[in-house]
TrEMBL record:
Protein's name in the database: Trigger factor
UniProt entry keywords in alphabetical sequence: Cell cycle, Cell division, Chaperone, Cytoplasm, Isomerase, Rotamase
Record field: catalytic activity: [protein]-peptidylproline (omega=180) = [protein]-peptidylproline (omega=0)
Entry's localization field: Cytoplasm
Keyword Cell cycle: yes
Top-level taxonomy: Bacteria, Bacillati, Bacillota, Clostridia, Peptostreptococcales
GO terms of biological process kind: 'de novo' cotranslational protein folding; cell division; protein transport; protein unfolding
Organism from which the protein derives: Emergencia timonensis
Length: 441
């Protein structure tokens, strides 16, 4: 097959796929082999009739349509890649005269990712909020590390807030024990809010070995209709009370939880890490502000099909997130009392902006002739390999040769965003102090 670019008018590209007579005849043979079992011809067992006999009965072109479809299906993806086209909708096809021993040409017209005229994208003015890490931020981070390394020890005393108790319980509504309300040697942290409101608070003051009845009322919106809004009594037996024992914040602690020999070194590393993260967040927020400014200057209408595709992607992403929580998109919509059409309309504005923003940025890529070198490509692939704990070769295989051009376009977008940020007029400002909370009177 030979692919030839013909023309581009607005966002429609025209090209041809030319097949030799030999290629077309081979496709006809393949179509015959695939469908010969469908024909019943007198004098031949099913599927055993020669091609010439079938063509005599049904006409010379009986296999032409399947042959053309196969040539198109096999040739079109390669042609798109060869011409480096990013198509956004289904193609229209025209066919040359078809016959045995004749070459065939398929002329394709297909809409491609549009490029719009962009302006004033360099030098936009934005503020960049810089956050300075404070000593209390470092202390809070160290305290979190201290808590994560705490030990639980038995406490021979009454239950306090924050303790973890080991208990048996059995729940009753009236005289009847209800299903799912019984457990043995269940761990429960007091104050976690894991149990029905009021349950954990009533265990405060209980001692190891004590039996205690806890009376609660199930919420009206409780998931079990049989229990919703009803009062229940849980007969509890406290086996153990455990309290959190925090390690001492000293040099030994630093050695145990890090690669540093002293607590001061650990604090300095923590401060540097927090500051690096804060700086990255500051830059990313400023880049977002630059993109928003450039978008507002250049926003444009986008093809509806691109918006619909983006809505599809957003819906699929939500569906994947919900499935991690044991739900499907259909169940979510039922719970929210929405139908699919209403849900899609709610996504439309955000999807339109996403598509329009990308269109503006990719148009700047074209205007500035932003390219991706092999070195940049390999660096991005290596970074991705580290992120996913894979070999670079595995990442390349995962992306696939057909999708590598889209991966390169993402790199182009990163480069153009960096370029817009570097050329923007960025005013750095300090993060405003948060006003202290005051009690309402």
């Amino acid at each position: 097959m030979k692919t030839t670019f013909v023309s581009k008018e607005k966002n429609d590209v025209k090209f041809t796929m030319d097949f030799t007579a030999e290629e077309f005849d081979a496709a006809v043979v393949k179509a015959y082999q695939a469908s010969k079992d469908q024909f019943v011809i007198d004098g031949f067992r099913k599927g055993k009739a020669p091609r010439s006999i079938i063509e005599k009965h049904y006409g010379e072109g009986i296999f032409f349509e399947d042959a053309i479809n196969n040539l198109f299906k096999d040739g079109y993806p390669g042609a798109i890649n060869e011409l480096d086209l990013e198509v956004i909708d289904s193609p229209a096809a025209e066919f040359s005269e078809i016959g045995k021993g004749k070459p065939m040409t398929i002329t394709i017209t297909v809409p491609v990712y549009p490029v719009v005229e962009v302006k004033d994208y360099f030098g936009v003015e934005v503020e960049q909020v810089e956050a300075k890490v404070k000593p209390e931020d470092v202390e809070k981070e160290i305290e979190g590390l201290q808590k994560r390394n705490a030990r639980m020890i038995l406490a021979d005393r009454p239950v306090k807030e924050g303790d973890t108790v080991l208990l048996d319980y059995s729940g009753f509504v009236g005289e009847e024990q209800f299903e799912g309300g019984t457990a043995e040697r269940q761990e429960l942290k007091i104050g976690s809010g894991m149990f029905i409101p009021g349950f954990e608070e009533q265990l405060v003051g209980a001692t190891p070995g004590e039996k205690k009845d806890v009376t609660v009322t199930f919420p009206e919106e409780y998931h079990s209709e049989d229990l919703a809004g009803k009062e229940a009594v849980f007969h509890c037996l406290i086996h153990e009370v455990k309290e959190e024992q925090l390690p001492e914040l000293d040099d030994e602690f630093a050695k145990d939880v890090s690669e540093y020999d002293t607590l001061d070194e650990l604090k300095k590393e923590t401060e540097a890490r927090l500051q690096k993260y804060a700086d990255e967040q500051s830059v990313n927020a400023a880049k977002d502000a630059v993109i928003e400014k450039v978008y507002q200057i250049n926003k444009t209408d986008v093809p509806r099909v691109m918006v619909e595709d983006e809505i599809d992607r957003m819906a699929q992403d939500l569906d994947h997130q919900l499935r991690y929580q044991g739900l499907s998109l259909e169940q979510y919509l039922q719970f929210m009392q929405k139908d699919a059409k209403e849900f899609r309309e709610e996504l439309r504005e955000d999807a339109t902006k996403k598509v329009s923003t990308r269109l503006v940025l990719m148009s700047i890529v074209e205007a500035e002739k932003v390219d991706v070198t092999e070195e940049e490509l390999e660096t991005e692939l290596a970074n991705m390999a580290v992120q996913y704990n894979m070999e670079t070769a595995q990442v390349k295989e995962m992306i696939g040769a057909d999708n590598m051009k889209f991966f390169k376009k993402d790199i182009q977008l990163k480069k153009v965003i960096d370029m817009l940020y570097d050329k923007a007029k960025v005013t750095k400002v300090e993060k405003a102090e948060e006003a202290p909370e005051t009690e309402e009177k």
